[in-house]
Amino acid sequence: MKCLSIQQPWAWAILAKGKNVENRTRPPIKSCYRGPLLIHASLSRPRRNDALLKKTYGIQSPNTLPAGCVVGVVDVVDSMSLGDLFYERPAFLYWAEGPWCLLLQNPRALAEPIPWKGRLGSFDVPLTIEELEFAT
């Protein structure tokens, strides 16, 4: 399966807070890819303001969230620039910052994170959707 490493707290926000856009500086994955995508919580932590994250998004401290593991699956439904998103998919604008946006739906958290080494960009993980156990 395709997999994408995402820093916490954003990996958690995708699975638990309805973050339906993953923002990238260049076109993510292959712009034509649609389908299931594993979400990997990276080990690296962004510089952030925890109080602002909590107030703005209700996001807990990233230090308490799993890292260095696959934490869930989403479905990629589209990939486009922020400018195109504004006109074509305005329902996705809340989380959009661009310049490139990966549009996500149907987030499913795993019952238990799977330790895995992440990489920059998208990468393949030898797992199938049938092998995964999802949280209830």
Report the CATH architecture. Roll
Per DSSP E runs of 2 or more residues, the count of β-strands stands at 6
Strand ordering within the main sheet: 2-5-4-3-1-6
The share of residues in extended strands comes to: 35-45%
Question: What CATH first level would be assigned?
Answer: Mainly Beta
Give the rounded overall mean pLDDT. 88
Main sheet record: 6 strands, mixed
SSE class: alpha+beta
Helix-residue proportion: 10-25%
The topology string of helices and strands comes to EHEEHEHEE
Radius of gyration: 14 Å
End-to-end span in angstroms? 22 Å
- Gross morphology is globular
CATH topology: Archaeosine Trna-guanine Transglycosylase, Chain: A, domain 4
Question: What assembly state would you assign to the polypeptide chains in this entry?
Answer: single chain
CATH superfamily: Hypothetical protein
Total number of helical segments? 3
Q: What is the domain total for the residues? A: 1
